[in-house]
Amino acid sequence: MIRQPQPKQEILARRTALLAELAPMLPPDGLITEELRLRPYETDGLSAYRQPPLAVALPETTEQVAAILRFCHRNAIRVVPRGAGTSLSGGALPMADALVIGLMRMNRILSIDYADRLAVVQAGVTNIGITNAVAAQGFFYAPDPSSQLACMIGGNVNMNSGGAHCLKYGVTANNLLGLKIVTIEGDILEIGGAHLDAAGYDWLGLLTGSEGQLAIVTEVTVRILRSPEGARAMLAAFKANAVAGACVDAIIASGIIPVALEFMDRPAIHACEAFAHAGYPLDAEAMLIIEVEGSVAEQDALLDRIRAICERFDPISLKVSNSVAESQAIWKGRKGAFGAVGRISPDYLCMDGTIPTSRLPEVLERIGAMSARYGLQVANIFHAGDGNLHPLIMFDANDPASFHKAETFGADILKLCVEVGGCLTGEHGVGVEKRDLMGVQFSETDLDQQRRIKSAFDSRWLLNPAKVFPLGPLADAGEAAVAA
Amino acid sequence: MMPILAPTSEAALAEAVAQAARDATPLTILGAGSKAAMLRPVAAEQRLSTAMLDGIVLHAPAELVLAARAGTRLCRIEEALAASGQHLIAEPPALGSLLARATGMAPNDAMDDEATLGGTVAANLSGPRRVAWGAMRDHVIGVRAVNGTGEVIRSGGRVLKNVTGLDLCKLLAGSHGTLAVMTEITLKVLPAPEASATLILPGLDPDAAVAALSAALGSPFGVSGAAWLPDLAGDAGEGPAALVRIEDFAASVAYRSEKLAAQLGVPGTRIVVDAPSRALWRGVRDAEALAVREGEAIWRVSVRPSAGPAAYRAIVAAGGHGFLDWGGGLIWVAGPASLALHAAVEQAARQAGGVWMVLAAPDALRRQVAVIPPEAPALARLSARVKAAFDPEAILNPGRMRDERAEAA
Ligand SMILES: Cc1cc2nc3c(=O)[nH]c(=O)nc-3n(C[C@H](O)[C@H](O)[C@H](O)COP(=O)(O)OP(=O)(O)OC[C@H]3O[C@@H](n4cnc5c(N)ncnc54)[C@H](O)[C@@H]3O)c2cc1C
Question: Per the CATH hierarchy, to which homologous superfamily does domain A231-419 belong?
Fold first, then answer.
């Protein structure tokens, strides 16, 4: 279990008075204080950890966010920003003495400009909401996390989320133009805008992926792109992980960057097939889903090239889609992967390390050995083009020993990712989940540099405390951690 | 002039910075010094160069990554990438001779080969492909750097997807050596496209051109360059032309360029492929069309593309000349190094809600003006604190981006 700091007793003691002062800063129903109504906010996508907050504020304007933050700053109240709460790393996990600021009521699309290819949206607009708003004109917002029906752009910005198509289109950071943010001191700042690139420091780049540590995002200017003429998928199955890995290398070496290049290992194939009946080959050790874009003739040409490359690797089966329906069938199993694993085991941890792609076979072998040692099953899904590995560790939440083993197993996998030259998290963020592993990847000097930047924005460490940075010796997130 | 410090290892560079911090000696940070004319003159006599930190330390073509020491010349990196059919995604310009001309030096081709990786990333310089494929900073996936107290810090790594901790890679890219001295940089790279085609759309004024460029960039054909030149160089009498680039496999390029040309329907459209197409974009990348005269100043203005034509006209009316890239959103400007023209550039950028940057100007001018837009007071306070978080003694490139004393006053 991950240790959380003690709540500040003086805040808990003054709760009633503080909330009474806060309420007038919000719309009439904008402050949630009753125990029962706080429940939905006590956890996020890392549901093993739960803690009801002090209260939940649901502002509707940037000015309200500014007023609340100014108040919290003055009173040294901790703040946990929250979008849809789908974080898989516990990024939105509350603390007992913290005010959750939920952005879900700031859910308006403010403007869309097709000539300049951008949209200005509030932080609580869902990821799919942006694409839905521009789809009729043939446009889309590129980063497409699997949680896109629920997760919000403010959360995406703070996690720098990726998606199945980020090999070609990049992650959130590569698809932003501007932000409106509020600092913990209550200052409203415009970062970037409708133009490309800052002339001064790249605040946009620093804020993206900052996990609610630096500011609250209230508005986002995103780039929108014209959809390709079409897309089509193919499936290739191989006798060994190493063979599939070599095939991925060969595809990239040929100069083709498919729009998606997904890898599944044997347990993942079996779990998905049992769930989705997508026709996945059950005798394969590894399977690739490869998607290309363009006109039908362009798709044919690319798929022919890729098929020829795959054939050099003695595939067990090759299936090139001939229609949108067939492509959907190929994707169906992969897209349902989390649900599929959930059917085998109601509880699983979704890990998220990145490795140099050349190390895949070795890493999968070592994860297999760990799986045997811990006695826990694991299925691996891998964004093969960019090295982002998602091992799904299955455990039994009713058994504390099983959960503990799953967490330790997960930590071992992430350490392995760092050991082979990768990193702790490719897209889910550090949150609380990987906070205590940061020392595996970074030196104290590296971390102190990051802490000093955190302090520059938030000198009292009130914003999303006890996340990202390992706690100080007293489990006190705050300036002490910097001074020490 | 004091000799240039050019440490031969990261450790030695860190020690040199630590010593300077102890002595409170300000440092001018440079690679080859090819961008000395950019922004403001640095108020530091002691120069510290990364030029001796040379060499590619990792190139894994199948993993799409390359890491090199900061002093490695960009042209060497481009050669190494080309040898395995890859390229730098952001297509950074080679501005050595352009900047030299503006500062009154006799330009030569060798100057274009001087730029180092560190300097290019520190300036976040990107070329035409930026409009579709991201800026230099988008492809910096790892850095090693020495902060202003002489500590070696790292951020990112050597994998394409990494959200572990705060992203200092992007913050350091574009910080012009004022936060830390980068010693090693890891980039995402991509296969170089097999073919390149350019649609030349003749006779368009800036408004018509930007409308066509927006239509092209909003098409499904993967346009990777969209520029407008007031006078298509080398083709006497041709006059203005918009250029639209498509890069991909040859068959795709042929199909898409034909189809896009038909959709845009600009009379007289020509399509050139491969060598001439590449030459055109090299010219756009390196701002050859700017035709800088000796002693002129150079600006880059970034605005929303649809605001580009009006901003361009306002600048031309004030005596500047230039061209448009990034679909109309990037205005390259050259003209008399006068306060009046600078004021017009600033005004045009502000009016369009965009930003400006002085790329080269005589010292007298760049000391007097805001070479980049001043930040709002609350943001400026954050800037100062972040600067202090890296460089508490303020020894790294003082005065490079702003006149800190004037702005503090
Ligand atoms: C089934 C499932 C599939 C997923 N698939 C993917 C995937 O494919 N790729 C991927 O990258 N992620 C994925 N995720 C993880 C998650 O959806 C993303 O991290 C997402 O961006 C979180 O958005 P959210 O709105 O739910 O944010 P939350 O979970 O509410 O918050 C995320 C973090 O951002 C902070 N935050 C939120 N909003 C703001 C704001 N406005 N200002 C400041 N800080 C803020 C929070 O404090 C927290 O630290 C998946 C999650 C699930 C449950």
Answer: FAD-linked oxidases, C-terminal domain (3.40.462.10)
